[in-house]
Amino acid sequence: MLSYVLRRLAFTIPTLLLVAMAVFTLVRLIPGDPVQLMLGDAADPAQVTEMRRALGLEEPLPVQFVLWLGKVAVGDLGKSISNGLPVLPLMIERFQVSGLIVLVAVFFAALLAVPAGLLAAWRQNQPLDLAIVAGATMLLSIPTFWLGLLLLLLFGLKLGWLPVVGYVPFSENFGQALLYIVLPIVTLTMVEIGVMTRMSRAAAIDVLRLDYVTHARAKGLPERRVLMRHVLPNAFAPTWTLIGLILGHLLGGIAVLETVFTLPGLGRLLVDSIFARDYPVVQGCLLFTALIYVLVNLVVDLCYPLFDPRVQAE
Amino acid sequence: DAQNTTIRLRMKTDIRSTDPGTNRDGPTDGVVQHMVEGLVAFREDTSVGPLLAERYDVSADGKTYTFTLRPDVRFHNGAPLTADDVVWSWQRYLDAATQWRCRPEFTGGLAKLESIAKTDDHTVVFTFDRPSALIPATMARVDCGGSGSTHRDSVGPDGKWRDPIGTGPFKMGEWRRGQHVELVRFDQYASRDEARDGYTGGKKAAVDRIRFVVIPDAAAAKAALMSGASDIDPDIEPEDFAELKARPGLKFESATTMSMATVIFQTRDKVMQDVRIRRALALAIDTAEITDAVTAGTAKPNNSVIPISSPYYTKVQAGGYTRDLAAARKLLAEAGYGGQPIKLLANKRFKSSFDVAVLVQAAAQQVGLKIDIEVLDWATQLDRYTKGDFQIQSFPYSARLDPALSYEMVTGPKATQPRKVWDNPEVEAILRQSMQIADRGKRQVLFDTLHRRQIEELPLIMIYNEVQIAAMRTALNGYKAWPTGQPRLWGVTLN
Amino acid sequence: MSGPALLTVDGLKLRATGIGSLVVDDVSFSIGRGEFLAVVGESGSGKTMAARAILGLLPPAIIRVDGRIRLDGEDLTQATPERLRQLRGPAIGMVFQEPMVSLNPALTIGTQMAEGLKLHRRLSPQEIRAKSVAMLQRVQIRDPERCLAAFPHEFSGGMRQRIMLASVMLLRPSLLIADEPTTALDTLVQREVLDLMVELARQEGTAVMLITHNLGLVARYAQRAVVLQRGKLVESGPAQRILAAPTHSYTRQLVDALPRREAATHRDAPGEPVIAARGLEVTFGGRRRFFGRRPSVRAVDGVDLEVRAGETVAVVGGSGSGKTTLGRAMLRLIPASGGQVLFRGSDILSADRATLRAFRLGCQLVFQDPYSSLDPRMRVGQTVAEPLRHVPQLSAADRERRVEEVLEEVGLGGFGRRLPHELSGGQRQRVAIARAIVRRPVFVVADEPVSALDMTIQKQVLTLFRDLQRQRGFACLFISHDLAAVEEVADRVVVMQSGRIVEQGSRDDIFDRPQHDYTKALLAASPALDMPKPRSSTIPVTDLVT
Amino acid sequence: MKLRGNTLVGGTLIGIVLLTAATATVWTPYNPLQVNLRARLKPPSELYWLGTDEFGRDVLSRIMAGAGTSVLVALLTVAFAVVVGVILGVVAGYVRGWTDRILMAVNDALLAFPGILLALGVMVVVGANKYGIVLALGLAYAPSVVRVVRGTVLSVREREYVEASRMIGNGEIYSMVRHVMPNCIAPIAVLSTSMFGWVLLSESALSFLGLGVPPPAPTWGNMLAASRPYMETATWLGIAPGLCIAFTLLGINLLGDSLRDRLDPRMAHA
Ligand SMILES: Nc1ncnc2c1ncn2[C@@H]1O[C@H](COP(=O)(O)OP(=O)(O)OP(=O)(O)O)[C@@H](O)[C@H]1O
Ligand SMILES: Nc1ncnc2c1ncn2[C@@H]1O[C@H](COP(=O)(O)OP(=O)(O)OP(=O)(O)O)[C@@H](O)[C@H]1O
Ligand SMILES: [Mg+2]
Ligand SMILES: [Mg+2]
């Protein structure tokens, strides 16, 4: 097992290298220039060139790449062009915000969606099922910004229960931090519930018609237990894969949510950096999210045999 | 309690650094200007007046400027401001490694700064290689950081910028990246005696702290203002104005700024090089109507590059285009325009850019001009602008506080600077002249000429100057908007 | 009948909504406490459905249109779902026909066994564990402790069946419905399991409803029997009487169809071996754990075996002795850890693609668990037609005809449009057989191919096998627990125990002069041998086709 | 075969959408592009049934005109992502080994890319046009499909009927297509219908990178995005396209579910 994990970790290196190379070329391929953006409409060509040289952007691409990669190898992701801060600590600080929200939200979403999906499957084509499916579909068709803003206006403004903007780290004031983070989590949870519900419903429908479910019933198990103990583990695999995907996706991209709720998260950092053509930050963030992605998926794969013992971990 | 008042002001994006005029953008300047001060600064009417200097004298040949410093000024660390500090600051600015944005201006662009010398502890002499009317204005330029004087301890032993130790009414507090910058009142601030006047005049801080809170999302900012999570939003969206106005507990302050919404042409383009086609477009649109629609009735139309709030804006500048569809159609026919589609670049980062594009497109359609809008991200559009690679753009120009600088922004040789939209040596000559002379009347004549030629040659259609509306809680007193668009929180109280 | 009836089924009618026909048509019977009732009948006659109706667990496509079911005077057809749920397990326990698909693949055996106990009896985890272990021991699972921590797919067919039985009997229900509970069990274990049921009946007054095709079992254990044919109850009465003097023609056919030994067909000079195993070994690696791995299991241990053209070699042996594994390894469906498999002389374990393809086209397997081996989305006709894809120059019409023919031969004429889940256990098994023989292979591994078939159809299938063998000369590895069937078809018999071949020889040698103790024990425990051989048998097999 | 409620409701909803799209090609109440600055942000009235937007354009006309484009773009994107995703997912899950590892390395790399960056990249390669969005979003979503499909395949390929197929002598590709893929339908169906919704929503997000449907042509996505500043003052602007998206999605889901049930022979009589 341990060797398997190590082997899998070794396989992340080509993935990361691929990401590094692709990101590096892509961000430089797309039009736009960080220095130009900084100097704006008053940019003096000579000054642009000089600043680019100072930032090391005038070297040939391969040279830049090798230099960058060499530094990355020793853990130095460079400095942000926008504000001159070292990328790694910047990212880690931002990630703590996004990571927390995403983990908690996905956890709650799964906690709500999976049973809802099971319930719908159990009552397939009956009113309860229709209601759940319709609800899930509605949630799927509400954009994050819309939902987030709605909640913000309702709880922040109309009812005044929760603060409207800002963020306090948990390390500073736990109670305050909680208040600030409730709405984003609720929003994200609602946004992610839709697809998860539908996924677990679909899988559960398939499992519900298998004989061992009937057999479980023949043992006199209550329906709740039949669903949770016998249907769930077998129907959970696709949802589990999906959770891995969502986690990975979100960790790198809840920019919209972070913007609506004014959270200093990684998603906003990444998007802002893309728009600002802040190459080092974009490269660093993507490398980081790719790493997280691979790790999340490794965990997902490692857990797979838990739901389907027939699938061996290679 | 009154002992610990904090004003929270909304900012759209985080600041980039605290180093004046180097790694900067609009919001950065706004924050930094609360902490550092230069020798001179803009007044409310965009003329230049002394700030750290008690007064300044210009030699007859216009090449030597002698600044006499105010004696009682102190840095945030308690040290008194001396001529040495000014010299040190300027030497740092002129060092290429500092990457001061305005260094090119003082190394030959505007004039070459040949020497900075202290004659005594309170007198500094600047010597330039040639005279220029724009020297004080450039020194005061907000995007140059106001050429602020800072204490040498602002820089670490390694030569890197740390925190600004300036002379402003507020000193650096805490900067939480992505969240807020907090500044603390500087108790030993030595204010000028006059009333507040632009960036100069009386600048005594009336509150203990000011916090610039980063709220990128306009809707969230609105909610923050209404819920009291922020005290003032110095730049609300025009479309929110009506709604906010109806709310109790809020009041407003507005000023026409000097930033410009324009439609620029690539006069080297196969289609757009024909001035008749450009004129047809200018005649097809109703500037007033577009301005009204885009700014929700808050701004006034202006076809001149000179901002409405500029003292040089006169009746001449008020003359522009009037809609005439028949004439436009005729011009198109004369030009032999055959309906070939023209690309209009716009972006959604500046909502006005997109809105103007949509309305221009609709107007053009009425006379048979086929315009396709291509929306780009701002960086890409700017890149296309810099390279001159476009047919038409709906382009937002940032504020220039002197008409000469405004014209300088658009004119120049395309061969060396492809971004310039108005490539005409004669025009450049007039402009150069306007930069050298200081006489107000003579300059006005030159600017009038430039305006007439601009209307004639049509390198761009200027549409309006942005109006900035600040919305604030009624408890906030003494806030005033002004043409630079930058917020000022000294002299502002919060009950 | 001993005592008042515990269960009364009265005028039960079940309809398949899709097909619209009655699958159970006016069936009535009853069982008393402590009574042992055998339900026999044609494959597809509705036995399973009738049993499931008692539990109220009919598949969605089958509905009860009429009839009453009373348990202890309580009308189950009127009971609330909650009440039914309470009754399931402690009052009515059911062992499903297909053990392979009745165990949850994601849960360990221990969890699945403990569930019922936890729910219905107040016991501590230790007690539950102890009881589970004891019960597994009773059904002769070796190393029951380890078994509790293992997952279903790690067990042989027979082992799973025993586990199922154990988990149901653990609850000591007052009515035990066992749907063909011993089809995958060797005779020794079979006897043990049934003795256990009898003991339950005696000690706890459990009523046993045993659905079976094995008339030997009926004769030995059942007090009464009912006979079903095409959904109708055609005969009922004391078991001995029914077997000895059947009144209904179908019952007579059943009894007549009992397999019996025919002269071994020592074909014209058995040629080269079609397939041969040399020192074949299969080891299961044991499941990976987070740290370290479980000790491995050697399921096949140095087996040498030859099957010649036209020959049927039967493999018998204890449940879990490695028969299925041997068969699969010989077809290269699971990797061998040692030894060789020679197909027409060339080693296929190291064969190139072309050889392997020829091998695949020439060999077939009837899976021990037919249900899992059928694609749930494919209709019977499609499934059976699939192997014909690889027969060159076969027109669509020919293919269809061929499929029809084969289905007819296995007694499934007209079932082409059905889906696997719409079939009875025996019908599925026949689909698997049809698929295996439709392309006329040269070698077939038939893993318990007739375990779920009633005597008449079993006879038909066995005859079919023999005919094919005679006409086509195909070789067959016939894996079976049913010694009677083995006795009927085998030319040679191989006896396996714990992965090794302990004895092999000609059929007559093995049956008449067994050498190894294990073989002797197996033979002695075979219930079929207790039956007096019926004499009259002249009805042509084909007339019995449903 | 009797029409079940779901099919009926789903079919009706989708029917309405298609009918609307078809109608819009020949007739809309107003010209959907006609700017009318004198009728800006008018609430729904007899004149403008769904009100007007910030440029005075008729919302109903724009909704109608946007239906076709929105649905087409979503359809193409989903088709692209699903086709690519299913093929690669099945291959990776079925073949395993090095193929799997390499595919997954590339896949994970792609997954880590944010949509915006992909879109900007696509922009450079294919230029700014309507199909750029299909490519960009397709590329963004396909890796998710790959992952989900691969996961399901990993479990389906261990089933005995796949072994049986191999036993018959069927090639690996045939076994994949005929036996593995149909049994992975459920998660693919869910993912693709959900994706349909995501595309309808995120299409607008990319329009400001020059990848969307070029303005001023309406799509539901960009109408919804443009309505944002007016969320409180002109609620109708957001509600109309929002409901359109929701109902289309509901229709597709219901129809997809019943289609799946119908394709799944096991459900035919249930
Ligand atoms: N879902 C279904 N739809 C239609 N017909 C069905 C369905 N399930 C079972 N049947 C049919 O019902 C009949 C009775 O099936 P049942 O399983 O009760 O037979 P059985 O007597 O148990 O047979 P076997 O001995 O082969 O197991 C069979 O002919 C079968 O084809
Ligand atoms: N996938 C597996 N992992 C671990 N052990 C296995 C696996 N498959 C089979 N075994 C073990 O191998 C042994 C032989 O199994 P096999 O299925 O060959 O038995 P069998 O002779 O066919 O039994 P039966 O008559 O009950 O079907 C058993 O002990 C079983 O537990
Ligand atoms: Mg049955
Ligand atoms: Mg077996």
TrEMBL record, chain A:
<protein>
    <submittedName>
        <fullName>ABC transporter permease</fullName>
    </submittedName>
</protein>
<dbReference type="InterPro" id="IPR000515">
    <property type="entry name" value="MetI-like"/>
</dbReference>
<feature type="transmembrane region" description="Helical">
    <location>
        <begin position="130"/>
        <end position="157"/>
    </location>
</feature>
<comment type="similarity">
    <text>Belongs to the binding-protein-dependent transport system permease family.</text>
</comment>
<feature type="domain" description="ABC transmembrane type-1">
    <location>
        <begin position="95"/>
        <end position="304"/>
    </location>
</feature>
<keyword id="KW-0472">Membrane</keyword>
<feature type="transmembrane region" description="Helical">
    <location>
        <begin position="95"/>
        <end position="118"/>
    </location>
</feature>
<keyword id="KW-0813">Transport</keyword>
<feature type="transmembrane region" description="Helical">
    <location>
        <begin position="235"/>
        <end position="261"/>
    </location>
</feature>
<feature type="transmembrane region" description="Helical">
    <location>
        <begin position="9"/>
        <end position="30"/>
    </location>
</feature>
<keyword id="KW-1133">Transmembrane helix</keyword>
<dbReference type="GO" id="GO:0005886">
    <property type="term" value="C:plasma membrane"/>
</dbReference>
<feature type="transmembrane region" description="Helical">
    <location>
        <begin position="281"/>
        <end position="300"/>
    </location>
</feature>
<dbReference type="InterPro" id="IPR045621">
    <property type="entry name" value="BPD_transp_1_N"/>
</dbReference>
<keyword id="KW-1003">Cell membrane</keyword>
From TrEMBL, chain C:
<dbReference type="InterPro" id="IPR003593">
    <property type="entry name" value="AAA+_ATPase"/>
</dbReference>
<dbReference type="Pfam" id="PF08352">
    <property type="entry name" value="oligo_HPY"/>
</dbReference>
<keyword id="KW-0547">Nucleotide-binding</keyword>
<dbReference type="InterPro" id="IPR027417">
    <property type="entry name" value="P-loop_NTPase"/>
</dbReference>
<dbReference type="Pfam" id="PF00005">
    <property type="entry name" value="ABC_tran"/>
</dbReference>
<dbReference type="InterPro" id="IPR013563">
    <property type="entry name" value="Oligopep_ABC_C"/>
</dbReference>
<dbReference type="InterPro" id="IPR003439">
    <property type="entry name" value="ABC_transporter-like_ATP-bd"/>
</dbReference>
<dbReference type="InterPro" id="IPR050319">
    <property type="entry name" value="ABC_transp_ATP-bind"/>
</dbReference>
<dbReference type="GO" id="GO:0016887">
    <property type="term" value="F:ATP hydrolysis activity"/>
</dbReference>
<keyword id="KW-0813">Transport</keyword>
<dbReference type="GO" id="GO:0005886">
    <property type="term" value="C:plasma membrane"/>
</dbReference>
<dbReference type="GO" id="GO:0055085">
    <property type="term" value="P:transmembrane transport"/>
</dbReference>
<keyword id="KW-0067">ATP-binding</keyword>
<dbReference type="GO" id="GO:0005524">
    <property type="term" value="F:ATP binding"/>
</dbReference>
<protein>
    <submittedName>
        <fullName>ABC transporter ATP-binding protein</fullName>
    </submittedName>
</protein>
TrEMBL record, chain D:
<feature type="transmembrane region" description="Helical">
    <location>
        <begin position="71"/>
        <end position="95"/>
    </location>
</feature>
<keyword id="KW-0472">Membrane</keyword>
<feature type="transmembrane region" description="Helical">
    <location>
        <begin position="233"/>
        <end position="256"/>
    </location>
</feature>
<keyword id="KW-0813">Transport</keyword>
<keyword id="KW-1133">Transmembrane helix</keyword>
<dbReference type="Pfam" id="PF00528">
    <property type="entry name" value="BPD_transp_1"/>
</dbReference>
<feature type="transmembrane region" description="Helical">
    <location>
        <begin position="131"/>
        <end position="149"/>
    </location>
</feature>
<dbReference type="GO" id="GO:0005886">
    <property type="term" value="C:plasma membrane"/>
</dbReference>
<comment type="similarity">
    <text>Belongs to the binding-protein-dependent transport system permease family.</text>
</comment>
<feature type="transmembrane region" description="Helical">
    <location>
        <begin position="184"/>
        <end position="213"/>
    </location>
</feature>
<dbReference type="GO" id="GO:0055085">
    <property type="term" value="P:transmembrane transport"/>
</dbReference>
<dbReference type="InterPro" id="IPR050366">
    <property type="entry name" value="BP-dependent_transpt_permease"/>
</dbReference>
<feature type="transmembrane region" description="Helical">
    <location>
        <begin position="102"/>
        <end position="125"/>
    </location>
</feature>
<protein>
    <submittedName>
        <fullName>ABC transporter permease</fullName>
    </submittedName>
</protein>
<feature type="domain" description="ABC transmembrane type-1">
    <location>
        <begin position="67"/>
        <end position="256"/>
    </location>
</feature>
